[in-house]
Predict the structure.
Amino acid sequence: MALRASHNAPVSTLSISVARLAEGEHHYTFTAGTSDIGLGAEFQGPITVDVDLSRQGRQFYLDAAFSTNARFVCDRCLDEFSHVIDGTYSMLYVPEGTLADGDGNEEGQEIQEIPADAQLIHLDDDVRQFVLLSVPGKLLCRDECRGLCPVCGKNRNHFDCACTETIRDTRWDALKKLNKK
């Protein structure tokens, strides 16, 4: 999929030309294929990134919002499901060597040094990392997912099983014997 960007941004990557960027606020909208920024096959369709970039002297403050779709397997029932992955992040870009020890990270601010003569700010790595950080730790098709029956293995979201037997976890038996003494 080809990349598109508004505001005279290059079309080969998620990057912004800052060499002759005027002071003040600038807005960019990028659309890219998820594989173009190194995301795996579970991420489907394009990723959209809206960027507000403010130049103040040699520093650039970026606010970005991203959105894409992903296809995962539910941790409880093993069904595939689609999920929208979206989020925001902010980044302050400063020229190399301008941060003194102890400077930076006020209020959780992400700071990245760029070469003093930087022509472009590349967003690919940052967007990829923030997308991956936005994937939920527990992948559920829905909050009320009933999962698989531990006896017969049927998906309890689709079938009611008649299983009444419960599987006993014998790993704790030795501890239970100690408690009875």
